[in-house]
Design a protein that fits this description.
This protein is of the alpha+beta class. The chain is built from seven helices and 14 strands.
């Protein structure tokens, strides 16, 4: 679904029937005239109502009849139907065919310059076709990218599916030598020259002799990693016939050919032997490296095994510690539940404060004395409304924190009840003071009973006093009667 290809938008043929073109941050590097030509080219390439997406610093300029700007911050334009600016639609752009430094490069070329340019191109093409050697440009895999000159003598399309690989297209008498030399040139990144290579077989009437140059290209940068193969024809001198000497027999020519082929075979054998020796050395070196790597891997495997055992041991210790912590958490949870049930079962309002007299915890019954909710935890006790008539509560609490002596007072409430307030230090298991514990006990019944007892005592005292008065009167009366009788 996606085609990737290098595209020179100035010189290469344009794509057509495009729905959207994204050309961002490119036009800012071109001249204004070139920008206009490219925008016209984009207009030609887009479908009707197609879109053009430019960079944040680019715009369509004065070509508002070709594109319509869409709303928004992005530089997005819609193609409009227009027949104007056809004079700018020139492909390829002639302004880029001027030699460097030629004045008026951004304007249309003159007919004289075009004519000279065409003559130069035709002459160059004629020279390449007739007098230059055959050149083939391939990549490192041998795929043909470019040809120049008469390469048909050395390359021919293979039968079957089209395949533009040079090793498939090369003449069968050159295939082996060219393949070996190509691999050597690519591996060594150096130029290899094959001298006096014959094309053809022994049955051919004539044989062609060529020099083959295989050169990996390093410059320019665009042609790096490509290989240029040059075929140069060699003229074989023809011996003149003389009357004194007769033509050598055919078997002498055959012997000469066989000797030449034998010499070439020996050279190839020597080269194959050297390559095999170098390959053997490389394989031996690779084997030693692999052996060293294997030993390192074995050592690493042993270390990993040891680490695995240590991790297993650590995991077991962590599991044991986790079990102990879980047990402690369960015990703490049960103790917390026991303490909560104990505090609720005593029916005593209990309030826990920290060293700053802020609420830490309280029982449900405490909410009847102080207007406390769960969100009041952490607030100072002095900021909370209470029904106690006890203005010195905060002062007594600070005094208990200072002296560590508990305070117990009986105070009344705003609704006419009585309670005993006991303020004691909060001691941790480490015997550290970490706040206060306030308990509030309702003693209204005791106060009412005490008042009734006091009233009863007063009544009894009055009755006793009355009885004593009556007894004294009776005693005096009796004494008076006795004295009268006497």
């Amino acid at each position: 679904m996606v085609v990737f290809a290098p595209q020179n938008i100035i010189m290469d043929p344009p794509f057509t029937r495009i729905d959207i073109i994204s050309c961002r941050n490119l036009l800012i590097y071109l001249t204004q005239e070139t920008q206009k030509k490219l925008l016209v080219l984009f207009h030609h390439s887009l479908n009707q109502d197609g879109f053009l997406f430019l960079g944040s610093a680019e715009s369509i300029g004065v070509l508002t009849d070709l594109f319509e700007s869409l709303k928004g911050k992005s530089r997005l334009y819609r193609r409009l139907e227009s027949t104007q600016h056809k004079e700018l639609f020139q492909f390829p752009s002639p302004g880029f065919r001027f030699p460097p430094g030629e004045p008026g490069a951004d304007k249309a070329l003159s007919k004289r310059w075009k004519h000279a340019l065409n003559l130069e191109n035709m002459a160059n093409q004629l020279t390449l076709q007739r007098y230059s050697p055959a050149v083939v440009l391939v990549n490192e895999m041998g795929d043909v990218l470019y040809t120049s000159g008469r390469v048909g003598r050395y390359l021919e399309p293979a039968a079957g599916k089209a395949n533009w690989n040079i090793f498939v297209m090369t003449h069968k008498s050159l295939c082996y030598k060219l393949s070996r030399a190509f691999q050597k040139a690519v591996s060594q990144n150096s130029t290899i020259i094959l001298k006096n290579v014959k094309i053809g077989t022994a049955a051919d009437a004539e044989k062609q002799v060529v020099d083959i140059t295989i050169e990996p290209l390093k410059k320019p940068e665009m042609l790096r990693h490509l290989v240029m193969i040059v075929f140069t024809d060699i003229r074989v001198p023809v011996k003149k016939k003389t009357g004194k000497t007769s033509r050598p027999p055919a078997h002498r020519n055959r012997v000469a050919e066989l000797e030449l082929e034998l010499q070439q075979s020996l050279q190839e054998l020597h080269s194959v032997r050297q390559e095999m020796q170098s390959s053997q050395e490389e394989l031996l070196s690779a084997y030693e490296e692999l052996q060293s790597t294997n030993e390192e891997l074995q050592s690493f495997n042993e270390e990993m095994t040891t680490s695995k055992e240590e991790l297993q041991s650590s995991n077991e210790e962590l599991q044991t510690l986790n079990y102990e912590l879980q047990t402690k958490v369960d015990e703490l949870f049960r103790a917390n539940n026991d303490m909560k049930n104990l505090l609720e079962s005593t029916d005593i309002a209990t309030l826990f404060l920290d060293n700053a007299l802020c609420v830490r915890r309280f029982t449900a019954r405490t909410a009847k004395i102080f207007k406390l909710i769960s969100g009041d935890v952490g607030r100072p006790i002095t900021d909370i409304v209470s029904i106690l008539v006890y203005p010195g509560l905060a002062k007594d609490a600070e005094e208990v924190l200072r002296t560590l002596v508990f305070v117990e007072k009986e105070v009344t409430t705003s609704n006419g009840r009585w309670c005993t307030v006991r303020i004691m230090p909060y001691r941790t298991l480490e015997n550290k003071i970490d706040g206060l514990v306030l308990t509030f006990t309702d003693i209204t019944a005791f106060k009412e009973l005490e008042a009734a007892l006091r009233q009863t005592q007063v009544g009894l005292k009055k009755r006793i006093t009355n009885k004593e008065t009556e007894l004294n009167k009776t005693k005096k009366r009796l004494q008076s009667e006795i004295q009268q009788k006497k």
